[in-house]
Amino acid sequence: MPLVTMLLSMNIGLVSGRCQSDQQSLLLNLKKTLVFYELASTKLVKWNSTPDCCEWPGIACDDGGSGRVISLDLSFEGITGGLDDSSGLFSLQFLQNLNLSFNGFSTTLPVRFANLTDLISLNLSNAWFIGQIPNDISKLTKLVSLDLSTNSFFGPALKLKKPNLATLVQNLAQLEELILDGVDISAQGSDWCKALSSSLPNLKVLSMSNCFLSGPLDASLAELRSLSIIRLSRNNLAAPVPEFLANYPKLTALELGLCQLNGIFPQTVFQIPTLEILDLSFNELLQGSFPEFHQNLSLQTLLLIDTNFSGTLPQSIGNLEKLSRIELVGNNFTGTIPSSVANLTQLFYLDLSSNKFEGRIPSFRRSEELTYVDLSRNNLTGEIPSGHWEGLLSLTYVDLRYNAFNGSIPSSLFAIPSMQRIQLSNNLFGGQIPEFPNVSSCLLDTLDFSSNKLEGPIPSSVFDLANLNVLDLSSNKLNGTVELHLVQKLRYLTVDLSYNNLTVIASGKNSNLSSLPQIQMLRLASCNLRVFPYLRNQSKLFHLDLSDNQITGPVPGWISELSLLQYLNLSRNLLVGLERPLSLPNLSFLDLHRNQLQGSIPVPPLLIAYVDYSSNNLSSYIPPNIGMMEGENRHLEYINYELVEMWERVYYQDSITVTFKGRELELVKILTVFTSADFSNNNFEGPIPEVIGQFKALYVLNLSHNALTDHIPPSFGNLSHLESLDLSSNQLTGQIPPLLARLSFLSVLNLSYNRLEGPIPTGSQMQTFSADSFEGNQGLCGPPSNLVCFNPLISACSNTNGSISGIEIDWNFLSAELGYIFGLGIVILPLMFCKRWRTCMSFDFENQFAANLLLIKGSVGRKLEM
Predict the structure, then answer these.
(1) Which keywords does UniProt give here (predicted)?
(2) What angle do CA 372, 375, 381 make, to 5 degrees?
(3) Which residue would you say has higher pLDDT here, 192 or 860?
(4) Into how many domains does the chain fold?
(5) E strands, 129-176, where?
(6) What is this structure's pTM?
(7) Beta-ladder partners of 806
């Protein structure tokens, strides 16, 4: 128990005698001046309910019968505004304990706190005081506990700069507990370390997380031999962890998460006999490995999330009999999970995800308090005996995704009454899905068995799980018929039955689907659907995937009534059009490729990040308002839909298939900045809209295999993020815009089989593409193509129109061309006196000679430039 809480709890119980009248008057005046939320108050609202103020909630008087108020606790009272100097608080001269935490004062810290010179404990944490901490606090020389911490969620932090930390603590020699989390101290390592060690010899609790402290930790901290709790997380220490941290004889908690630590962590810290909590999370440069754990260690919580630890988990981990929480997420641990984990009988939270563990998993039957197990994203294999999970009556979460488990799904998981989430996707589980017993009392909200080898029909009991929010059975070998109206019993948020051998029956408007629950995500790809399911009343639907089915007819007009829809995939069907243009203000992804759409493009009047109309029979022009998203300064965040219902959160990441760099790719994790437009394999004609050059966030553009004419818009040079551009197999004319050579991210370019002409723009970017990118354009010349560009001056006499033409090198005549240079000197002098020649080619002898030299160089593959 923190010291401040212990002191308050002890003193609040010391109620003896009647409080003095002046004390009661001061308290009533304090209540009168405070602004507080009465519905949140449990103390102030009851003041004056009895004659004796010592009996009022939050008040404690001394045990000498004097009736003096020595403890005042007004935490969580919903107080707003400031503290008036006349409020009476600062006249309670005998106060030893004051707790105003978790209120909303939103004013600077009053200097009159210094009047309360008998204070032993001052707790102003998350009271929403702002500004500089006054130097007068240092006058409270009897303080044993000082808490000025602020959580950023509760408002702006206090500052401790002028005066600084050294000035604040210089007179607080009795202090044992210093909690300044969230206070802006902004001090260098040697400064703040020496300030503490020189002034606070009795310090036991040091908590200064998120204080903008720098490192490294100075050796002077080793002088604080009484330290039991060190919390310095979320500071920029940027240094190795010093060995002296293992020398504190009473250390119980060491929290250094998110401190940019580096180097190798000293193994001796793991072996501190008194250490109960160790948190080194989110230090990606911190390396280390586990020692052998001897018996009689006190470690209860071990957090190594996203560090760079490696090695094996030693068998001696079973000696940590008090270990209750272990998180080793995102490291490089290898080897097997030792069987001695079964000895951790106090374990309630186990997360070994995102490592390289292999082999089978041990039994957890003896860990009867276990509530959370996450072994996902490892290399674990083998069958999981059903007995591994028996007797775990508190288990709520099991995540075994992305391993290589095989055999049947353990049926014992389904019999645990407290179970809420089972995630077994991306394994090799086979056989049938077991039936669920006691479905009426089952608390299961997430069931994810996707990407396995499960067979047979879906058990009927699945559709009786009344609390189920997420059902994902996609990418298995399940068979049978599923009637969509069966889900009307459920509280689904997400349903995914895609890519099985299922036949989903979802009849049209007249079918009885009116009682379907409000679904937020529905994925029925490759489910042998033949008609469009009637989802008109699904007002919360934001993700709909009906791709790879046999749906015929038009896209129904009521789709536009689904105003929250963000993702719509109707690709690979037999759709022939839209009943009316889509009008979906929140749509980000639209995929209609490989249908039988005809006529003009159905333009959505919106900003969209991904659109695919490819492989249809669309014709006419590409309209200028195709709706692609503009701009380039958006955050690089992943599309991650958050489903919230009854304070529960389910995250489901989108996946789409795009034609990118010449092949189809499945993008499971999609950046919001990723934008793609694919109009290929249609019958579009006319010019490419100039407005496309304004879509600066565009990554992939495919307009190939159409009948587009006119030139390539020069505005394409503005597409600074473009990585793939395919304009092949059209009827484009004119020259390639020189600005395309400046697109530094462009890694795929296909302009083949058009009517382009002129020199290919120079620049290192263009030279990275093969000649195949430009083939089929008879008028193009220059590298990387095999056609050499003629200089117009060279052919002026023989070609009076002065046009630029291409010539292919005939290497059989190379020797004759080399001989030309010798004959040149013989004939050049008579030509100097030819008037007709001088008129036709009005340049001097030196330029003519240089031109012919360059012509010879060009004939062996180098570009002629004048």
Answers:
(1) Cell membrane, Glycoprotein, Leucine-rich repeat, Membrane, Receptor, Repeat, Signal, Transmembrane, Transmembrane helix
(2) 140
(3) 192
(4) 2
(5) 131-132, 145-147, 158-159
(6) 0.81
(7) 789
